[in-house]
Each structure stands twice: as C-alpha cells, then as structure tokens.
Design brief:
The protein is built from 11 helices and 25 strands. By secondary structure, the protein is an alpha+beta fold. The strands form 6 sheets. A 5-stranded antiparallel sheet has the order 4-3-2-1-5. β15 and β16 form a beta hairpin. The longest helix has 42 residues. The two termini are 79 Å apart. The N terminus is likely disordered.
Length: 541
C-alpha cells in the first residue's frame, strides 16, 4: 500500500484531466484493497505501465506487477494475467509502443523525472515511480510523503558535527524507533529539495496527512567540549501541533561512546516516543552520631539501618525522619529528628539519647473495638489485649501490626512504626460491613467467643465447689477420727454401762453421723465442681 500511494495521486489527476486516451481504461485494484481507474499501457518485464494526463501532458508511471491484485478492463477482461488470445494483443501493442516512445524521450527529461520521483518516494522509505516529464515529477514529489506513512522520522539535520557521525546517529535513532514502532518511515533532508528547514518539512508532511514527526539534531552544546543530541517530536491533533523536545549531552570527543553509555540514546528515543523510562535519583547521604554510641539508626520504612556513628544513602528528598534507639537492661533509650536534604547533599546529625517508655494510644471510630496483636487473621482462640480506646506500651521500636474487630464493621489491619518517642497516637476509622457472608461469619465468631467465654467462666467457677467440697470432706474425716478415739476408749475395762459409758456411746454416734453428712456434702460439691469444669471445658473448646 505504502509503495504505490504515489500511483494513486497520479491516477486521480489522470481521471480529471484525461483527454485522448492512449491506452485501455481499466479498473486497478491494489493489494491493499484500494481501487482506481487508470489507462493500462501494458506489462513488460514484470512491470506494469499506467498512464494519465497531468497539466495537459500525458505521463507514464511504472510499478512492479507484484503490487497489483487485479487489472480489469471495461469489458471484464483480466489484463494483469491475460489469457493467450487474439484479444489481448491489441492492448499490449500500443502499450509497448507508448513505453518505447517514453523511453526514447530526451535524456535530460528522463533524468529529471527519475530524480524527482525518487526524492518523492524516498520520503516514505521507498522508490515507487519513474516519471516521463519534469512537471509531473515535481507534482508527484510534493504529494508523496504524507499518504504513505502516518509517522515519519526526519534524519539528523546537517550541522557542524562530522557528516559520517551525523548519519550514523540518524540511522541508529531510526533503528531504535523502528523497534518501538515498525510503521515509522524515514525521510532524508535532501529528499525534499523544495525545503531547507524544519518548518517547511513539517508543513509539507502535515498537508500530506502525517500526524507524528520526529526531527533529529546533533549540535554543539553550550559547553564547548559537549554535544547535544536532540529529538523533537511534533504531533498534530486537529491541525494544532504539540512539540516535545528531549535531549542528552555527550562529550564532543567521544560522541558515539557516550551515546551508548548507560543506554543514553535508548533512553532518549524512548522518552521522545512517550515510553516511561525509570530514572535514577541522585543519592544524598546522612551521617548520624549519637551519645552514647552504638545506637541503632532506623527510618520508618526500615527497622534498622546501621549502628552509630554511621553514614547511609537516601534517594528521596524533603523531610526525612531519622530515629536512634538503644536497649539496655530492658530499658529503652531513644531520640528522633527530621532532616531536609538536597540531591547529592550530605547532612550531619547528632542525637543525645534519653530514657523513654513508648505508649501507643489507640482510638477507633466507633469505640469498643477489640484489639488483637499481630497481622494474623482473627481466629476463635485469638486473644484480645483490650478494647478501644486503650494505651499499649511497646518497648521495641520498629514496624508492628494490630488488628481491630467490631461487630458490624470490617476487620481493620493497622501497620505502623513504633518510633523511640514517648507517645504515638493511632486514630482508626472502621468500615461498615455490607457483605452478608462476612456478617454471618462475624456473628458466628462472636457467638463462639461468647460460648467460649462462658465455658472459661464455668471452668474457673468450678474451683469453688471443689475447694468447698474438699473442706467438708476434711471436716468429715475429723469427725470420723474423733469417733474412732471414743470407740477405742469404750473398749477399755470400766464400769459396765455406766452413765459415762452411755454418754461416750452417744457422742461416738453423733460424730459418725456428722462425718457422714460432711462426706455427702463434700462429695456432692466436688462432683458438681467436676461437672461444671467439664461443661466449661466442652464450651471452651
């Protein structure tokens, strides 16, 4: 399609300006699907000759036969692949004669036509036609660039840079652009002889329908030992140009070497083409000294960086938080400061540590949310450390996590940095639950937690009846021991069945009865305690 767009321009004009036909009118269809009427002059050496009038002068153009899908005359005959019949001969005879006549034209006219045609088609990276007249060639040249490619790279414009280096940079840049977009075509500066500057080339390409143009340039930079390699991209939206300029600076004595160092020219092409390229930020440095020494230096995103005194690099600028802490005998000493840096700068910081006891004040909206330590999902056996609002003491600086749960609200995970300061405030807003499955799952968790809580209470309360029952068993044993002593006394020789004897017998009987009662009560209490404990155990697990 791109190689025969020039043909279409001539054919369009030939249909308007045609006078006496010198060939057979035919319907021409290209491989791209484009259709147009033209005068078919014949086929010789796999080259199709078509003709038409431009400025009242008959013009012949030639194209490879492989570029055509079909050529059919008004009677429906296939002229591209004609059958060997008598009807085909008349069509070829005048074409051959006409072609011979065109080839017999003056050498100067052929040379001018060929040169102009080559210039026009080279603007789209192809040579597509030979013109038989100077007028037709110049018209063809002005119409060529735009209709063949929608994106054009204009090679590096001439400058004081050596020509060979300039051309090599242009070829390299074009190759990189082609790797990013294979539809882009190249246009050399000398291929549009009517233009001597970018503005002219830009205007001609715009008129031809080009919407994306890349201009290359290598010129001396402000510093006498440097060269600036520049890519300017011009894009058209509703006829209004948008211009984006991208450049790199290299050494004058090693242009090519510096262009490839660190993928500099590749980055230049990608930026010009609008492809994001990660850039390295300039490093800055922070030197920290502490009193006492050997304190751990950290930042909010890093638990530990180094031990003081030390120096570390940062790539971000602005307000940077620096923390220092020291654990001695379970006591925390710490300090905090903020540093503002410029790219490539080095800041020196001196910190004096003091004893601290960091407290985390946790406030939630709504209040009354259960607090669970760690980032893990909340299970039925997860243990809460309290409900909001609550103060939690943490003595180890660094990143930590808490998870909050409140009935009717989505679980909230909070990751935060424990800095070596006295108090840290966390204000957490919780989100309402709307998913039915999540609500049901949460209700089941609360129900199980309530049952487990009751079970633990029962397990704890079972201790009381067991202890009380044990006390009654102890009292029962005391009564049994006293009754046994009286029984032994009654076995000793004495006055038979005296008043004292009968009194001891009664007392023995009373002690045995009391011991029996205590045993029954104590055993019942212990049994009840065991039952309650068992029930609590079942409910808890």
């Amino acid at each position: 399609m791109k190689k025969i767009a020039l043909t279409l321009a001539i054919c369009f004009i030939s249909q308007v300006c045609a006078a006496d036909p010198q060939g057979t009118y035919a319907q021409v269809e290209l491989l791209s699907g484009t259709k147009q009427k033209a005068q078919f002059l014949g086929i010789a050496n796999d080259t199709v000759s078509l003709g038409g009038y431009i400025k009242n002068k008959f013009t012949i153009v030639k194209f490879p036969k492989s570029q055509f899908k079909s050529i059919v005359d008004e009677q429906g005959n296939d002229l591209l692949n004609p059958a060997v019949t008598d009807t085909a001969a008349p069509a070829k005879a005048p074409a051959a004669d006409t072609t011979a006549a065109a080839e017999a034209a003056s050498p100067a006219a052929d040379s001018t036509a060929s040169t102009a045609s080559t210039q026009a088609t080279a603007a789209t990276d192809s040579t597509v036609a030979d013109s038989a007249s100077t007028d037709s060639a110049s018209n063809t040249a002005s119409a060529a660039p735009a209709r063949i490619a929608n994106k054009v790279f204009v090679t590096f414009e001439p400058s004081e840079i050596p020509r060979s280096t300039n051309e090599l940079l242009g070829n390299i840049t074009f190759g990189l652009l082609r790797e990013l977009d294979s539809t882009i075509r190249i246009l050399h500066w000398n291929e549009l002889p009517d233009c001597n500057d970018r503005a002219c080339i830009q205007e001609q390409l715009k008129n031809a329908g080009i919407t994306d143009i890349f201009f290359g340039k290598a010129a001396r930079a402000k510093h006498p030992d440097s060269v600036s390699i520049e890519l300017t991209r011009v894009t058209f939206e509703e006829d209004l140009p948008t211009i984006k300029k991208t450049q790199i600076t290299v050494s004058r004595d090693s242009i090519l070497q510096d262009s490839f160092k660190g993928n500099a020219i590749t980055t230049l092409v990608k930026k010009s083409a609008g492809i994001p390229v990660p850039t390295r930020q300039a490093r800055s440095y922070i030197h920290v000294e502490t009193d006492p020494e050997a304190a751990t230096i950290s930042r909010p995103e890093k638990d530990a960086i180094c031990k003081s005194p030390c120096t570390f690099a940062v790539t971000d600028t602005g307000r940077i938080e620096v923390n220092a802490y020291w654990n001695v005998d379970k006591h925390l000493w710490g300090a905090q400061t903020f540093v503002r840096l410029l790219p490539g700068d080095t800041a020196k910081v001196s910190l004096k540590l003091k004893r601290i006891n960091p407290e985390i004040k946790i406030v939630s909206n709504p209040v009354g949310a259960d607090i669970f330590p760690g980032p893990s999902e909340i299970e039925s056996d997860s243990k809460s450390i309290g409900t909001t609002p609550k103060k939690v003491t943490l003595t180890t600086p660094g990143m930590t996590s808490l998870r909050l749960r409140k009935a009717g609200y989505r679980d909230t995970l909070v990751n935060f940095y424990v800095a070596p300061v006295s108090e840290i405030n966390l204000d957490i807003s919780m989100e309402h639950l709307t998913d039915f499955d999540e609500i049901k799952k949460q209700e089941e968790w609360y129900h199980q937690r309530k049952v487990s809580y009751i079970g633990k209470i029962l397990m704890g309360s079972s201790l009381a009846p067991v202890l009380l029952g044990s006390l009654f068993l102890y009292l029962a044993q005391q009564d049994y021991d006293d009754a046994e002593d009286i029984k032994n006394d009654l076995k000793m020789p004495s006055a038979a069945k005296g008043a004292n004897y009968n009194e001891k017998v009664q007392k023995n009987k009373d002690l045995v009865d009391s011991g029996d009662r205590y045993t029954i009560i104590g055993g019942s209490l212990i049994g009840a305690g065991i039952v309650v404990f068992g029930l609590g155990l079942v409910l808890s697990f």
